[in-house]
Structure formats: C-alpha cells, structure tokens
C-alpha cells in the first residue's frame, strides 16, 4: 500500500493555531509592521514547530516580484567589501529578500554583462558599489524607473541627480580630519596615497586632504600625491618612491585601509618603524585595522550602516514603487585613533575622537 505524502503546513494552519488571521501571519513571517512583538514571536514559534516552509514560487507569482536583489562589488577579496556584503545580505534577509553578488570591478563590459544576467533573472533592484558617472546603463535604468541604489560612491548626471538614490559617507570631511590630525601631531610633509581618479571617493578624499593642507598653511604639492587605484601593491611601490626622496614624508595618509597596509609593508621593509619614523593614517576602519601590531589610525566610514541603509532605501523603492522621500544620505565619518599615527608618543589628546 502506497503511503500518502504528508501535507505541507500553510499560513492558514499557523493562523488557526495562533488564533489570528492569515494576513497577520503573512505580515509576521515577512517582517512587516503591524504585528505586536508578542504575536510575532508566537507565530515564529508555531512556524518552527509545524515545520512551515514558505512557498517562494507562489509568493513571487502573487506579487510579481522575485524577492531578490543584485549587488555589484568591485573586489570581494578587498577586506572592505566582505563587511559591506555581510551587512547588505543580513539586512536583505531580514526584509525577506535574497542577494545575488556580482564581482565586477570597474570593467564596463563586465558590468553590462552582469546587469543583463541579473535583469534576466528578474531581480527587483540592484545596489551598485561600483557605479561611475559615465557607465552606459545608468540613464537607461533611470528612464525605466528600475530601482537601484548607489552605495559608497555617488554619481552626477545632469538633470537626473534627484532620481539617483545614494548612501555614502562624507569623504571630504573624513580626509580633512585625517590630514588635520597628522598636522596636529607635528607633520607638515605628508604623502597622500590616493585611489582611482574616476571614483567619487578618490575625488572627494583628495579634495578634503588638499583643503586641510591649505587650512594648515601647507601648499599642496602634486609630487606628494600618488594615484594607486586602491591597490595594496601599487601603494607599496609608491611608498618606496616616496621614501627614496631627499626630503621624504614623515607621515602618510592612505585613502583606504588596504592601501595603508601596503604603505605599512613598504615602510617596514625599508627598515623604518611605524609610528616612530613614519606616521600612518588610513580610511575605512576594516576589521584588520584594529589587530594588535597593526593598530591603524583610520577614518571609520560606517560600513555596516551604509549596507543597512542601502537595502532599506532600495526595498522601500521596490515595494512603494515610487521615489523615496530621501534620495541622498551622507553619513558622518569618525577619526579612530590607534598607535600607527604616533599620538601616544607625543602626548596628543582630544575629546572629539575615538581612541582605541
């Protein structure tokens, strides 16, 4: 005799057991507002007890959505991006969405290829951390009202800026703080390890550093800036060149922590010490920055918050099908002081920064 297959638990089953409506169960399971904490917890317990498995296919057919987001990243091997990806993925899951990650760099052809793939899979929206002003698909996405958010970077397109949703940190201010901090420690010859000149992050951070130098009475010198494309190896090579100068820098500001690690490697290989001989400040505050022995002074750009807000803005756009009330979020950076800048050697004190 053939055994009958066990029937799957439905939302109606959970609703009956919980003494609520199926709508209430649906709201709770999809982390939507309108359900009390007590009722939500009861529904989750029953769903687990009854081995409830959501039918994503039926859900997608009803809503005409895939409940999937795309994520474009430059280099998942860069320690900055896994932290951001983790925040985006966790927030998306809390909102009932999955994430497809595309590691595309700044290769335009690769971006276009992956964009076609994602749209072919029916993703509901995309978070771009790699977008540039001249990317060929941007205007098309805007004209089609396809939901997307730019995170970390921002872009400018004449006449369309108000339709571009972005979450960034104030990169100008962060770089300004870094240079000002080094100047207060007595450094007036500072090497700047810059990123990629096509990106808003490099443009804004370099501008902030330049303004800080001017305000400190130091004339910016192009010979003290090296464009290293956010590459650790290029930062190492540039640092070696700086150290070979007759009047070498006494400090470096690297426009991201990955390049700061490259600076550190080059300085130590040259037989010099950090911070006794060379002071160092980075930008990002990645996890490795706080490791004993590295203890990198850096600018915290709220990586987790950027990820969280990017998802929330995108989901809001997808579900409300309208432009969000807030289209530009600019978070405030924070100077995190560790030993690499040498503050502890000079008795430097401040009540406006975080010391670790």
From TrEMBL:
* One GO MF term: DNA-binding transcription factor activity
Q: Where is the HTH lacI-type domain?
A: 9-63
* Keyword Secreted in record: no
Q: Which SMART domains match?
A: HTH_LACI (SM00354)
Listed CDD domains: HTH_LacI, PBP1_LacI_sugar_binding-like
Q: Which UniProt keywords apply?
A: DNA-binding, Transcription, Transcription regulation
Keyword DNA-binding in record: yes
> What is the protein's name according to its record?
LacI family transcriptional regulator
């Amino acid at each position: 005799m053939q055994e009958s297959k066990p029937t799957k638990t439905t939302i109606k089953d959970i609703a009956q057991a919980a003494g609520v409506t199926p709508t209430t169960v649906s709201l709770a399971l999809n982390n939507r507002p309108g359900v009390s904490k007590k009722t939500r917890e009861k529904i989750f317990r029953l769903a687990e007890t009854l081995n409830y498995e959501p039918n994503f296919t039926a859900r997608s057919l009803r809503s005409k959505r895939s409940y999937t987001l795309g994520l474009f990243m430059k280099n998942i091997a860069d320690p900055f991006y896994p932290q951001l990806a983790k925040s985006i993925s966790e927030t998306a899951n809390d909102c009932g969405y999955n994430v497809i990650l595309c590691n595309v760099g700044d290769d335009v052809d690769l971006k276009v290829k992956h964009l076609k793939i994602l749209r072919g899979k029916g993703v509901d929206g995309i978070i771009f951390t790699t977008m540039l002003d001249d990317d060929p698909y941007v205007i098309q996405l805007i004209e089609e009202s396809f939901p997307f958010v730019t995170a970390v970077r921002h872009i400018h397109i004449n006449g369309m800026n108000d339709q571009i949703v972005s979450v960034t940190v104030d990169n100008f201010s962060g770089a300004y703080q870094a240079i000002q901090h080094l100047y207060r420690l007595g450094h007036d010859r500072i090497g700047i390890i810059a990123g990629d000149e096509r990106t808003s992050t490099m443009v804004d951070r370099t501008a902030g550093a330049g303004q800080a130098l001017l305000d400190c009475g130091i004339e910016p010198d192009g010979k003290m800036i090296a464009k290293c494309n956010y590459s650790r190896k290029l930062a190492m090579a540039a640092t070696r060149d700086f150290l070979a100068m007759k009047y070498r820098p006494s400090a470096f500001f690297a426009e991201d922590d990955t390049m700061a690690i490259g600076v550190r490697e080059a300085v130590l290989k040259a037989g010099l010490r950090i911070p006794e001989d060379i002071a160092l400040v980075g930008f990002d505050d990645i996890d490795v920055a706080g490791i004993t022995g590295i203890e990198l002074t850096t600018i915290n750009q709220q990586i987790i918050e950027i990820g969280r807000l990017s998802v929330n803005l995108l989901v809001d756009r997808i579900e409300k099908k309208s432009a969000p009330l807030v289209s530009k979020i600019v978070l405030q950076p924070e100077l995190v002081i560790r030993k690499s800048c040498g503050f502890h050697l000079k008795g430097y004190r401040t009540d406006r920064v975080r010391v670790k």
